[in-house]
Design a protein that fits this description.
By secondary structure, this protein is α+β, with helices and mostly antiparallel strands. Among the domains are: 132 residues, Zinc/RING finger domain, C3HC4 (zinc finger) (Herpes Virus-1), CATH 3.30.40; 95 residues, 2-Layer Sandwich (Herpes Virus-1), CATH 3.30.40.10; 39 residues, Orthogonal Bundle (Helicase, Ruva Protein, domain 3), CATH 1.10.8.10. It has 24 helices and 29 strands. The strands form 7 sheets. Strands 14, 18, 22, 25, 26, 27, 28 and 29 form an 8-stranded mixed β-sheet that branches. The longest helix has 16 residues. The radius of gyration is 32 Å and the shape is globular. Its EC number is 3.4.19.12. This is Ubiquitin carboxyl-terminal hydrolase. Pfam families: UBA, UCH, zf-UBP, zf-UBP_var.
Length: 848
């Protein structure tokens, strides 16, 4: 074996020192969930700074020829008996003042719990070099290798940077009114307790205005609790901006709200402002919950958290393949729940986990940025059982009376960073809607599986919409692709209406002992609301060439292998404040949707003529053409007319007043044919997540609004990128021309117009039996599967909290006829799965 010093000299040119901006992956393997704490530690390539577990470092060496790796291992230290013991000579830990980790005022990250061992390893012979060994080597070797080692160890790892930065909660800012706040010399002095609203005598949620000392109640919350808005009304009358919540004042601070800035704020002069009204901040004690505590309390609906998490029962922890927990990275429970369910679906298992070796072999040079690699890594981590082990004993923090189901589990940091990159919500650590993430992930799968097996086909189905003109009785049939059935919740169909009314009456009368009653909605009522015809007013009928009424009926043109049902619990109140319906629905274990199969055109049924509404022109717009790709300014024979449509200005204005972008409002009115505010509002709510939601209205027959992008000017690089995703050059050209040659918009456009792409095939079973019997050739469209409409429930995701922007998600999955609860790192056998409180339900097809 060659001398290690000579070997180091031979590879010295491949050893780099990290520079600012270099991504150093020293906490997590790029291809597995190995870490420095794992058996074998982690090997960091000293050239690319990618990290690899012991099972993959040899593969990276064989593929790249890289030989020098920094081997990092961490061993847990024995915990001190009492770190807060005053006899130790160390002051007690400071109490956290911010919802944050590893930053000033946040929770401490206890790095001292581990002992670290670092050395250089040279492959393939695995020769080891320690810092002490470098002292005997030539200066050029010692200096270069030492700088690289210290640079790698000093650099913030990618995972640490994401964890700390994204975990930081909202930071309250100093109020612009604090420094020069006007305070009236009116002789008002506030007692240290016994406060009441000066208007309504309410004794809870009491605020004192810091300008005139008025003591008034706070805002009324959307659930009816809180105050009666008297402090807010006082601000609206006087303009006095700052108020402090009485009962939250301590020597450390208090809750201060700025009505002018509409946010919780800091007041650096709070002791002075309180002293003006006789309040000594240093002697005050907390008697009221802070706004943060109130938010948590409001989110924790009575009974919901305990029931969904099965907190009141002794649950048996599970370990092994297919029951691996996932660490919560800070409000990532929505992601954890969705991915746990998806990797129960055979299509995702076979596409990613069964092919993991092939996927890793074909991965690009930086696998941390490759979608297929990171999805396969996550799937293997969940199903292999390698990380399904009990978490280390935390000592006496948890009493022996509470069984622990926490696991070592996996922390999907790379996966979360990759799927959330560039997304305004999923790139943050804020809580998200699990349904929105599911669709976002399916969209990413669609983009990355164009040239191979596509597991999202398991959920894809066709919806047939039938519109019947009530005047002519002629029909129009359209089909669209969908992945989720959104089930409405008819609150007026509650089985316990009288009980609900009585509880509401008692609450309105101020009865604090009034029980919280949950509405019990029959599942059959939800299905009836989904299937019943919808009445359309102001429908433009091509048969009568005028506006009339029509009915729209929705049916399944195909049944997917796996059916996802979303209970539409989240809605908007009359004031557009989002709220969650607190309901219990008797969701069945088996489901037969055969009666909702689309039938297509019936014998003797006439179709509405394919005639567009007459073109409407604004009187002040001159008709101009669009220059064709071969036209010129002197010859307008190839011009195509661009007509400016008449839009209902009042409807556009109403939508704009609700805060929606002008162009989105124009499109909503245009695409709903000026049929009114309700139809336009429904269009907006259905298209809010579209990438071109706020883009200018593009009329049929035009390419991109103000003008077209001729083929000759399209970027060859953009064309090649889209073609590499499995689309034809013609399709890529069409997408780029429709989006002014902007690659990102073109990719979004092409995936939102799959129905229009002529080359996409439909499987033989992709249409209903009625259509097949009719002998009609199925029109081009996305590939769908079809089969019987009978299903059995195999998983559901539940949400706890008042809105999708807060709270917590868990999922229950049926494995080998046993329900299992996945609550982040805790995986246990479920005793009482709360199937009536779910948000997303997952069914799989059963044979007849």
């Amino acid at each position: 074996m060659a001398d290690v010093g000579e070997v180091l000299m031979s590879v010295l040119s491949t050893i780099r020192v990290p520079k600012p901006g270099d991504r150093v992956h020293k906490d997590e393997c790029a291809l597995s969930f190995s870490s420095p704490e794992s058996e074998g530690g982690i090997y960091v390539c000293m050239n690319t700074f990618l990290g690899f577990g012991s099972q993959y470092v040899g593969r990276h060496h064989a593929r790249t020829g890289q030989r020098a790796y920094l081997h990092i291992t961490r061993t847990r230290k024995a915990k001190k008996e009492d770190e807060n013991n005053s006899g130790s000579g160390h002051p007690p830990k400071k109490k956290p003042t911010r919802l944050a980790i590893g930053i000033e005022g946040g929770f401490d990250v206890e790095q001292e719990l581990y002992e670290e061992d670092v050395k250089v390893v040279i492959l393939p012979d695995r020769q080891e070099v320690t810092s002490e060994d470098l002292g005997t080597m030539p200066d050029v070797v010692r200096e270069r290798v030492s700088l690289s080692m210290s640079g790698i160890m000093a650099a913030d790892s990618v995972s640490h940077t994401l964890q700390v930065q994204q975990w930081d909660g909202e930071v309250r800012q100093e109020s612009k009114h604090a420094a020069n706040l006007k305070q009236l010399d009116n002789g008002v002095k506030i007692p240290p307790s016994g406060w009441r609203c000066e208007v309504c005598d309410l004794q809870e949620n009491i605020w004192m205005n810091l300008t005139d000392g008025k003591v008034l109640c706070g805002r009324r919350y959307f659930d009816g609790s809180g105050g009666n808005n008297h402090a807010l009304l006082h601000f609206q009358e006087t303009g006095y901006p700052l108020a402090v919540k009485l009962g939250t004042i301590t020597p450390d601070g208090a809750d201060v709200y700025s009505y002018d800035e509409d946010d919780m704020v800091l007041d650096s002069k709070l002791p002075e402002h309180l002293a003006h009204f006789g309040i000594n901040m240093m002697t005050m004690e907390k008697t009221e919950r802070t706004m943060t505590e109130l938010e948590i309390a409001v989110n924790q609906r009575v009974g919901e958290w305990e029931v969904i998490q099965e907190s009141g029962t002794t649950l048996k922890p599970l370990f092994g393949p297919g029951v691996t927990g996932m660490k919560n990275l800070g409000n990532s429970c929505y992601l954890n729940s969705v991915m746990q369910v998806l990797f129960t679906v055979p299509d995702f298992q076979s596409t990613y986990v069964s092919n993991i070796d092939k996927i890793i072999d074909e991965a690009p040079s930086d696998p941390t940025q490759d979608f297929k690699t990171q999805v396969a890594k996550l799937g293997y981590g969940l199903l292999s059982g390698e990380y399904s082990k009990p978490a280390p004993d935390p000592g006496d923090e948890i009493g022996a009376s509470e069984p622990r189901g926490d696991q070592v589990g996996i922390a999907p940091r790379m996966f979360k960073a990759l799927v959330g990159r560039g997304h305004p919500e999923f790139s943050t650590n804020r809580q998200q809607d699990a349904q929105e993430f599911l669709l976002h992930f399916i969209n990413m799968v669609e983009r990355n599986c164009r040239s191979g097996p596509n597991p999202s086909e398991a959920f894809r189905f066709l919806v047939e919409e039938k519109i019947v003109c009530q005047q002519s009785q002629k029909a129009k049939y359209t089909q669209r692709v969908d992945y989720i059935v959104q089930l409405p919740v008819p609150m007026d169909q509650a089985a316990n209406t009288e009980e609900l009314k009585e509880a509401e009456r008692r609450r309105e009368e101020g009865d604090s002992s009034a029980p919280t009653v949950r509405a019990q909605i029959p599942f059959s009522a939800c299905m009836a609301a989904l299937s019943e015809p919808e009445m359309l007013t102001d429908f433009w009928s091509s048969a009568v060439q005028a506006k009339t009424s029509a009915t729209k009926t929705t049916r399944f043109a195909s049944f997917p292998d796996h059916l996802v049902i979303q209970i539409k619990k989240f809605t908007f109140g009359l004031d557009w404040v989002p709220k969650k319906l607190d309901v219990s629905i008797d969701v069945p274990d088996t489901l037969d949707l055969s009666g909702l199969r689309a039938t297509g055109q019936q014998p003797g049924e006439e179709l509405l003529p394919e005639v567009a509404p007459p073109p409407l022109m604004t009187p002040d717009v001159e008709v101009k053409g669009i220059l064709g790709s071969h036209g010129n300014e002197d010859d307008d024979s190839l011009y195509s007319p661009l007509l400016s449509p008449v839009l209902d200005d009042s409807t556009v204005s109403q939508l704009c007043e609700m805060g929606f972008p002008l162009e989105a409002c124009r499109k909503a009115v245009y695409y709903t044919g000026n049929t009114g505010i309700d139809a336009a509002m429904n269009w907006i709510m259905s298209h809010m997540d579209d990438p071109d939601f706020s883009a200018p209205l593009v009329l049929p027959g035009s390419s991109s609004g103000p003008g077209t992008t001729p083929t000759e000017s399209l970027s060859e690089e953009h064309l090649a990128t889209i073609v590499s995703m499995g689309f034809s050059r013609d399709q890529a050209t069409k997408a780029l021309r429709a989006t002014s040659n902007v690659l990102e918009r073109a990719v979004d456009w092409i995936f939102s117009h799959l129905d229009d792409l002529d080359s996409m095939d439909v499987s033989e079973a992709g249409r209903s039996a009625a259509e097949s019997e009719g002998g009609r050739d199925p029109p081009p469209g996305p590939r769908v599967r079809d089969g019987p409409g009978k299903y059995e429930l195999f998983a559901f995701i539940s949400h706890m909290g008042t809105s999708t922007m807060c709270g917590h998600y868990v999922c229950h999955i049926k494995k080998d006829q046993q329900w299992v609860i996945f609550n982040d790192q805790k995986v246990c056998a479920s005793e009482k799965p709360p199937k009536d409180l779910g948000y997303l339900y997952f069914y799989r097809r059963v044979a007849d």
